[in-house]
Design a protein that fits this description.
Chain lengths: 301, 301, 301, 301
């Protein structure tokens, strides 16, 4: 359970006082506000704030004085049109702010998405908690035999046990030394900004992360994808659910035109047309590399 | 008066239905929501939405579970510290969305601030209104005699009258031709995306503009400055007031450490120390250019 | 002809002095350096500088000490892999700097691509030239009957003549008044920053524009597209040719996986699978909107 | 010594073949190209490529057809003017590409500067080397007694020895286990993307980092500052030297108007004027906080 009683009390206090507002308001996401959704062994994601709703996307697209379009159906149709034709700026008019607790090696992938605002807990200034990500047995995967950047089956038996033991004991020992190094009890105490260097990448950090909906969708397309590392995908998958409760039309359009869509190269389109005309297309006559042809076949199920 | 009765009715409708929310809420800015503040002859600025408050800046700086700091005084102290020491990321945690109506030549300056989200009214798709910026007599300024990029006194007498007459009649004639060119009454009708090219840069456009507080302060520092062109400065000055009602601690810190602050070069600091030590510093012994020395003297009042 | 003899002499001078460098160098783009390629009636695009080559993309992808991969074939294969799998950061390691002269209404579309560096000729500081875009007869298109944001046939006969006459005379009159307003001959002279507001959007401006290859490809995908306005498309098409001479492998991959590619929605992929299984898919049983089904049929040729 | 013979041979090969180019070329930075400048115990910075020179800043500011201004003196004057008046876009017209090897905890600070292009060595795909940052004795600093985010004196005696021993042995043990976990010798072998989580933050990583001169100056102002952590400052200080050899006028202006400059708040300017008028300004009558007054006194030397 990732929250202390004090933290839970602070969250409860924030949820206790609804205020009247004239802003676009979405009950579906209000229900999530401030609550921590647990992820991995010590992580979470919390919605801290949001700006805009489905209607706000239409309102900006039309630069209107009032709400988006005349009707909810029109809003949905316009949003789907905008998504399909890559009109991205109206989606930038919605904004989401999250509080995320996550292992450092996940944070290092996440931060590559540059078009977002970030405030991370400072290990120069503060002391990190003794919390490390230790994978569940079925997430303790072997290196993929066919893909340098992928995972295979879960480790088995003694090997799995040995790996888990190392991950745990190395983390604990590193933290013990971290704590002893910064201690000022009878000694000078190493600077925090130096002592943190002894901590492994599975220690948890946390940050406030704020992003507009267009850039969030870009993040989700890459990170809620089967090629993304499992440990970041659990965060992306959870955020997908939150977004679906916040801007349901935009999220559905995202599912249809991005998440569930495929992009076919010029060569693939050419092959497809030949196939629909009755021709048999093979690896030999397709003018694609072996790998591309395999990807093409996979697209066609 | 820039709003039609239909537009005003849409705004009134948006202001008529407060909703409960758990988000950070600021009565001072709620009072402005959706209302159009008139600027120049046909322009306006309207607050459409906001995210965050002074406390949200502290909450992000501390990556906290509840509100910012324990007390309002602590919030103000922390905000001033962050501003003074250029810790900009916590200010990025607040976001403002505006609807702005402004002349095209002002829009062209404004858009250079790239770190913002924009949806502009499309003259490819829609028909522009017959509204042009015609300066008030005291804003009809002569070219500065000393600064290539500045203004001098207001034009006088016949010259002023002649200029105003040209601005008005050229605008009207251009718009007449624009309207006749796109008309499909008894003719094909020129494409809107082409016809717009006949319209001068004082025609009004409008956009939704969304920006975080850090980048908004950067915009305001440059555009609420005496060197900025008057016609953009009136927008910046008005936005300053809105921001002061939204995040009063942050705005006060911005006034003290940015708007009202001066930056002194290494040479200026050196001269200053010499002056405080009783030495007389002159243009000859200051090791600055003539122009810099003039700027230095101005800083010292 | 867009260049004065003095401008041509400056360009010739820049091309007269090759210097030795150890940087990645591409003869194909060196041949274009500084030369103005004429576009529209008074516009041009000039390559001012470039950084990197195809090999530099691989070098960055591999974070290598020497060149990219061991062989040219490997470079091409890696580049195609990176493009296909949306690994965009290695393409950001190449940079192009252009000098572009273009009508203001084109510049206003162009500037929406925010991830680029821009220095525009200042009409606050300097005086604009008397140069306006007047379309060729076959570019004088009517509004599309089926697409609010598109063009139809060219205007014919008297209507075409009338439009051209207005565009020309309105431009000339506006410029005459501009020139007279800023004149300081026997009068105060209106400030340049104000006088420019009388000039229509077909006047030419110019800027230095610098962008990395990833963001340039994004610009080209949207602007070298049949849905882009013709007047910006001629610039994008020309830049495509320059890029093909600069980074031929990357450009070919861009053609295959972006320009010539199609993105199919989840529904389209589903229909496609049904079609390949022999089922007849119609507008009635496809679970797409009318418009989407039309787009789908177009993809399949 | 951070380079293997193979790496050195690759660098030598890149330096062996000068090519003719028509681009702006700077001998001062050509001399550095590809060479690794050692930093900390295993790190380095290498210049991989550059675009532009001092003259290119002026060329863009003036949107000129040829070089920048007529003379070298004019170039310097214009550059100093642009820097002093915060005209930042011309500086964006120069670009620098570096290859940097640095400890992960330094990389985590560095990456917060978002307006840059980055390709980092992938520990999902590749195996990290056994190289860790172990501070020199005089860099093994105690926590500051007065500043939560700072360092005090170097640790002494047994405490220093104990800390060094822990840093070394924890790093070695973590790496041993990392190597054993990914080994496929008689076992499945843990996925690389998981095994890396056992490695502490003082392990070295490397990346290609490309940035424009304006954003580089912003980075240097914050990181070549006495408040920056020592381990990132050594990189910033070294990059300062490289930039001085590349764009000497711009670098001098940066030193005078940014690095060596001070920003005084409205209150400080007020106090200064009172002091220059002969008044004695004290902590009691200055209307600043204790801390600000201390900062003010420090500015005045």
């Amino acid at each position: 359970m990732p929250l202390s009683p004090e933290q839970q009390a602070e969250i409860d206090a924030l949820r206790a006082e609804p205020m009247p507002t004239l802003r676009a308001t979405v009950p579906g996401i209000e229900a999530h506000l401030y609550k921590a959704v647990p992820l991995l062994d010590h992580g979470f994601v919390r919605v801290i704030d949001y700006m805009g709703d489905d209607s706000a996307i239409c309102q900006a697209a039309r630069v209107s004085y009032g709400k988006g379009t005349k009707s909810v159906q029109n809003d949905e149709g316009l949003i789907r049109y905008l998504m399909r034709h890559w009109h991205s700026t109206p989606f930038e008019m919605c904004e989401l702010k999250l509080h995320v607790k996550l292992p450092v090696f996940v944070a290092r992938q996440w931060i590559r998405h540059r078009t977002a605002n970030v405030n991370e807990y400072s290990a120069r200034y503060s002391i990190l908690d003794r919390e490390f990500y230790i994978p569940e047995p079925d997430a303790l995967a072997a290196q993929s035999a066919i893909n340098n950047q992928g995972r295979g089956e879960a480790l088995q038996g003694e090997e799995a046990a040995r790996v888990l033991e190392w991950l745990k004991t190395d983390a604990m020992r590193s933290y013990d030394h971290y704590a002893e190094m910064i201690s000022q009890d009878g000694q000078q105490g190493l600077a925090r900004e130096l002592a943190r260097m002894n901590l492994p990448a599975n220690i948890y950090t946390q940050w406030y992360w704020k992003v507009d909906l267009h850039n969030l969708f870009h993040f989700l397309r890459l990170r809620a994808d089967s090629h993304a590392q499992y440990e970041i995908r659990v965060y992306a998958d959870e955020i997908c659910k939150l977004v679906a409760d916040w801007v349901p039309f935009a999220y559905k359009a995202f599912e249809d035109y991005r998440l569930g869509a495929v992009t076919m190269s010029a060569q693939m389109v050419d092959c497809l047309r030949r196939m629909l005309a009755g021709e048999e297309v093979t690896e030999e006559n397709c003018e694609m590399s072996k790998r591309e042809f395999r990807e093409f076949k996979a697209m066609l199920g």
